[in-house]
């Protein structure tokens, strides 16, 4: 809002003094951008001011005597938009973020269930569909990041709610780990398709491991959402995620004692990596997570 208003004011003043033209554009940009950069203004503020100023010089140059109506209009319009955005989330500023977090974790867990069902039924078509969905999962994480940014902006403008900013920052860190989880599931889905094409019987342990992993993903989602809402104990859900992820790895480890095809070996590796990235996402220490997951896989003594 301030960037737009500042750009409008600078453009109005310069065009009234010099008239429209190339030199006016250069001067407007210098007078708009240079002071803001010197004061350490954010890139958003600088860009908004520059775009607004350029628009007034090139497209809608002021005519006649300078009257700061457009500057005032920009302030009023921005204030109305700001007020409306705050009223829409007045009672529950974190509600959109909570809804997006639930949706993201549900999509991840549902995809694991779909892959598991395709393996159980040796359904190549279903596995291929799951693989296509896996390539689209990044969109879910991007939506979650957008919800994080929106929630952060909302809380910055609500003084009494700023104590929740720490929770939002945790979600932002988790979203970074979810990018890795998405990549892990994508590789798992790709090798599930290959395994089915080999017409290899899927061991029951693999189905149990993927089922446990899906449960861990759902529990991790509950840990995040209950931390945001405060309606339950997030540590309890984080513990369920921890137990489920390690259980998935322990079950998959039993398959290492059998003759394995290459796709099955890779799937076991991706179950391990998904467990690692998921547990990092719920706030566990990196080194501790690796040690515990590898111990569950039977690699601690290696």
Architecture overview:
The chain is mainly α and 302 residues long. It is 79% helix and 0% strand. The protein has twelve helices and no strands. The protein has helices spanning 2-18, 22-38, 43-58, 69-88, 95-121, 124-135, 137-156, 165-197, 204-229, 234-253, 262-281, 286-297. The protein starts with a helix and ends in a 5-residue tail after the last helix. The model has no long low-confidence stretch (mean pLDDT 82).
**Alpha-beta content class:** mainly alpha
Largest sheet: none
Report, as a whole number of angstroms, the end-to-end distance.
59 Å
What does the average pLDDT come to? 82
What would the principal axes of the Cα set say about the shape?
A: elongated
Helix content: over 70%
The low-confidence runs, each spanning 5 or more residues with pLDDT under 50, are: none
The whole-angstrom Rg is 27 Å
Element-by-element helix/strand order: HHHHHHHHHHHH
Count of DSSP H/I helices: 12
Beta-strand residue percentage: under 5%
Count of β-strands: 0
Structure summarized in a few sentences:
Helix content is 79%, strand content 0%. It contains twelve helices and no strands.
Key phrases:
302 residues; 0% strand; mainly alpha
Topology:
Blueprint: H1 2-18, H2 22-38, H3 43-58, H4 69-88, H5 95-121, H6 124-135, H7 137-156, H8 165-197, H9 204-229, H10 234-253, H11 262-281, H12 286-297
């Amino acid at each position: 809002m301030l960037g737009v208003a500042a750009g409008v004011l600078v453009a109005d003043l310069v065009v009234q003094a010099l008239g429209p033209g190339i030199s006016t554009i250069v001067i407007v940009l210098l007078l708009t951008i240079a002071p803001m950069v010197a004061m350490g203004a954010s890139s958003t503020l600088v860009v908004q001011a520059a775009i607004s100023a350029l628009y007034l010089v090139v497209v809608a140059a002021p005519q006649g005597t300078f009257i700061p109506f457009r500057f005032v209009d920009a302030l009023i319009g921005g204030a109305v938009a700001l007020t409306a955005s705050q009223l829409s989330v007045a009672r529950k500023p974190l509600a959109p973020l909570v809804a997006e977090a639930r949706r993201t974790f549900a999509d991840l867990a549902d995809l694991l269930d779909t892959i598991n069902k395709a393996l159980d039924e040796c359904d190549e078509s279903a596995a291929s569909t799951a693989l296509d969905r896996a390539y689209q999962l990044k969109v879910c994480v991007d939506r979650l990041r957008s919800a994080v940014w929106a929630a952060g902006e909302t809380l910055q403008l609500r003084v009494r709610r700023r104590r929740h900013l720490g929770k939002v920052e945790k979600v932002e860190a988790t979203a970074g780990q979810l990018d890795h989880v998405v990549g892990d599931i994508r590789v798992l889905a790709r090798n599930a398709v290959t395994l089915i094409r080999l017409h290899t019987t899927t061991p029951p342990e693999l189905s149990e491991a993927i089922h446990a992993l899906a449960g861990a993903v759902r529990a991790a989602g509950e840990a995040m959402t209950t931390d945001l809402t405060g309606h339950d104990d997030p540590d309890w859900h984080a513990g369920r995620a921890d137990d489920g992820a390690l259980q998935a790895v322990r079950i998959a480890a039993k398959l290492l004692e059998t003759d394995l095809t290459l796709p099955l070996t890779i799937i076991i590796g991706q179950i391990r990596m998904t467990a690692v990235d998921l547990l990092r996402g719920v706030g566990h220490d990196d080194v501790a997570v690796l040690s515990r997951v590898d111990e569950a896989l039977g690699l601690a003594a290696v």
